[in-house]
Amino acid sequence: SVQSSLPVILVFPDLVFRCCLANVNSVLIFSVVDDWIESYKADRDTALLDLINFFIQCSGCKGVVSGEMFRNMQNSEIIRRMTEEFDEDSGDYPLTMAGPLWKKFKGSFCEFIAVLVRQCQYSIIYDEYLMDTVISLLTGLSDSQVRAFRHTSTLAAMKLMTALVNVALNLSINMDNTQRQYETERNKMVAKRANDRLELLLQKRKELQENQDEIENMMNAIFKGVFVHRYRDAIAEIRAICIEEIGMWMKLYSDAFLNDSYLKYVGWTMHDKQGEVRLKCLTALQGLYYNRELNTRLELFTSRFKDRIVSMTLDKEYDVAVQAIKLLTLVLHTDEVLSPEDCESVYHLVYSAHRPVAIAAGEFLFKKLFSTREPEEEGAPRRRGRQSPNANLIKTTVFFFLESELHEHAAYLVDSLWESGAELLKDWECMTSLLLDEPLPGEEALTDRQETALIEIMLCTVRQAAECHPPIGRGTGKRVMTAKEKKTQLDDRTRMTELFAVALPPLLAKYSIDAEKVTNLLQLPQFFDLEIYTTGRLEKHLEALLRQIREIVEKHTDTEVLEACSKTYHALCNEEFTIFNRVDIARSQMLDELVDKFNRLLEDFLQEGEEPDEDDAYQVLSTLKRITAFHNAHDLSQWDLFTSNFKLLNTGIENGDMPEQIVVHALQCTHYVILWHLAKVSEGSHRKEDLVSLRKQMRMFCLMCQRYLTNVNTTVKEQAFTILCDVLLIFSHQMVSGGREQLEPLVYSPDDSLQRELLSFILHHVFIDQDDDSGSTDGQQDDEAGKIEALHKRRNLLAAYCKLIIYNVVEMNTGADIFKQYMRYYNDYGDIIKETMSKTRQIDKIQCAKTLILSLQQLFNEMLSELGTGFDRSSSAFCGIKELARRFSLTFGLDQVKTRDAIAMLHKDGIEFAFKEPSPQGEGNPPVYLAFLDILSEFSSKLMRQDKRTVHMYLERFMTFQMALQREDCWLPLISYRNSLQAGGDDDTMSVVSGYSSRGSSVRSKKAKAATPTESSSSADVSWQQQTMQTPVMMPSPHLTSTMLRGPGDVRGEPKRARDDSYMGVYALPPDPQQQPHPHTLPQTPQLHQTRRGTGLMEEDEEPIVEDVMMSSEGRMDDLNEGMDFDTMDIDLPPSKNRRERSELKPDYFDPASIMDESVLGVSMF
């Protein structure tokens, strides 16, 4: 045990402190407390001094209160002396220290206080010395400007208050029992009445009443001396402690504390700026609303703060939003408290991307809409299908889904309801019955739109049950499933397979002409346990399914339907299962017929001398669509599709009248042919003839795509460009990596003409204004959805080309034409261009820098061609190029060593460009491109000091003696650029500081220290570190013990009573925390504030040792409570039950007309 391992010489504070730190069991803490109580009874001053030193030590203070100090000094003087003893080298103290030991300290510390009160509750707690001294000390410490004292003492005081609440609750119960015994004895006949017992009961009740009064006084002292100050403390952790504990008081002893005079503190603090404090408010309220017996006492509070709770469901802190939704779910128990508008604001959160929020909203929705389930009669057979109790609930789910108008998010709705309504969502028998069976007499049938929604929801429930993970965008990564979850998954897959293997063919037959319904239904077999087709003897249903799929392929030409059929065949054609041969035969027969039909139609379609009609073109297109959709997932190499498709594409080039959709699908199908051929060659076992054939086909196809880049049809050009980029990337030099050197003959690098055509396509089809893009949106420029779709398509085209740059398929310098568009098209493509710059810099820093400077040079030349050589350097065009250069400079980051060579090369190229073209007017005039130096100066801050001198020397090689003497305006770019290179440490320092501060002051430390330069650090770095990392000068601890913000009355020396009244009154509700940032530091005393402003370098969220501690109520607290002005209430424990009926009702403390009288204000602390 810890006790046996500690030295005997340890005094009580060290013993208890180490017990708390070691997180020992409760038995040892009880033993320590019992020993201390015995020592207190023997010598209370010495024992109490040990307890005081324990609290001081738990605050992290090295000072010790001596016996002389304890006897002769006031608490304020003792605290001031301990403040001087505090270790200022570190802002850490036990409650904030990191590490597993210190994390357990808080719990043990709180347990010690609870045990101490529990063991003393029948003896020394009422001696009017122990508790008065401890409460007085904790009250003084909680008012300290030292955060460690304030935090530790507030925690101790709040836990002490909670322990006293438990004592008061026990006293109340004992008083009620005693009173009941007294009444019983007194009601007996005189002959049977025991007068001695009556006197004992009266004496006991009197003692209990006196004890209760003592406890009331103690709790009043803590509440007024600590809570009413600290619940508005500047430190969020302290405010959170207060709110957490007042929630415990109201929950433990609701008769005394669950009234509006205490609830108001929780209600106001729900507007706190810090999420952790708002979270404590909600968790405290959850403990109250969970007990339905307390709902009547919460009615006024609910009506007053309901709107705030509803608004917190949209809190910027997700944890707060989750708890707000859970609290509203508990509020649902109260009839008609939440309006339909309140509920709707929670309903839409089931579509939130944050899963805990969505799950909480799903539980709210389930309890609100699905709690009216019809009870089944006992002994009656269980109703199934559309007669089951779930039928109406499933319809309600469909109605809600349609009314939400978010039809593409059924998977998110199902995931949100999964934890609370999985039983309902997995009632697939009822769903299929609603779709297949005729409605009952008097029952309204589902509409076509409702059936579509039900099928989509049914598919999502099947996917959720089979995959056991949330939809894309809502998952938190792969999670290891438990054994129970795995068993549930297997059972669900078995049940869904047995059900849908039978029900799916009729469903497909019923909805075979509806593309949307069929597309969703065809995805169901992907989640089947295919072994059940054999073990369950369901082969005839498999045959029916294959027949239905074939009929759907023949009926539909929609790409989504055909791809769904292809994926279904792919899922069923699994060689691991015995049904493979049956499905493979059906697939082969269908594809044989399709290919034969395509070849026959194509031969007629391409006959010379005959112009094909629209019907022939439609037949070719529909057949080609089906083949292309299946070629995506199935290897059709046994049918020579390359020859027929290439012939079709070649005819389109020669004649120029080929329908665009035929060309688009022929390009796609040929692409699949080449990819499947490559997959077979990459397997390892291949012949040389296969490589030669593939190489020939690939190059012919690339040439064909290149020719289609000049097609008049935009859709065809976009398809050719996308496929060409994919083929170039796949067959680049990257394909031989990973031990695949045998594929080297297939490597294909685009020639210069192809690179130029690709770049030209990007410049003419991507970097265009929205209104100019008339081809890809079919003229629907006013349609917002069409514009978004067109932008998405252009982004894909740009991303395809940028991948060629990143993987070095095309020359990196071609990226200059992309990079120069960074500013102009920042909103549309800024993220893609920035990522491309980042990737190219990782590949080759120097070449990337040369590409960046080339893009600036191109823009500069374009500006000169428009404005001429005599342009104004304040023009928008020139300023735009300079701003682009500044943005480029920021992408190099702060590490000058890593980018040293790249920046130097960038300056070299820039200087050479600036002096490349001499003035046509003679030597006395500046070079034509001299103004480019003004742009180049944006990169000077990225040069290291020694490199600045080198670049300056290189600049002087291009300068003549006369140039150095020029001071005219036309030479200002040269002058400013030279100054940026000669600025040395000052410019270097300022540039780094500005760049560093732009990151949002990322250096965080409890105590800023002067930086020590290392050998590798430059002098500029040392200078910057010395500027930004000075240690702030700390003032001595002021002699004021109160840390309240003083009003004007304090300066004039008004009595302390008036000052207390000014801050003990109720403050109005603050505004929404999302609209105004929470101040981390608050106005200080003038002397201290002046000292900090002198350093100017204190981090915004650092916590100095000496600080002001109250949240300011000036300028940010509007009176949203309609003029409410209350003072702190006395804690008045309720009378025993026989007195409770005669007690008057308390006033409504949320009513503005209810103002407290003077008798309530005139209270004493002790």
Rounded average pLDDT: 79
Low-confidence stretches: 1-11, 377-381, 774-781, 985-1128, 1136-1166
Number of strands: 0
General shape: flat
Q: What are the main properties of this structure?
A:
single chain; 1166 residues; mainly alpha; disordered C terminus
Outline the structure in words.
The chain has 1166 residues and is mainly α. 62% of the residues lie in helices and 0% in strands. It contains 51 helices and no strands. Helix 4 packs parallel to helix 8 and helix 7 runs parallel beside helix 9. The radius of gyration is 40 Å and the shape is flat. The N terminus and C terminus are likely disordered.
Blueprint (SSEs and pairs):
Layout: H1 2-5, H2 12-22, H3 26-42, H4 44-58, H5 67-72, H6 75-85, H7 100-120, H8 130-142, H9 147-186, H10 195-230, H11 236-252, H12 254-257, H13 260-269, H14 275-289, H15 299-311, H16 318-331, H17 340-347, H18 355-369, H19 390-403, H20 410-425, H21 428-436, H22 448-467, H23 483-510, H24 515-521, H25 531-535, H26 539-555, H27 559-572, H28 580-605, H29 614-631, H30 641-655, H31 660-682, H32 688-708, H33 714-730, H34 752-765, H35 784-806, H36 816-819, H37 826-843, H38 845-867, H39 876-890, H40 900-914, H41 932-936, H42 945-958, H43 961-965, H44 972-982, H45 985-997, H46 1019-1028, H47 1048-1051, H48 1056-1064, H49 1086-1095, H50 1137-1140, H51 1158-1161
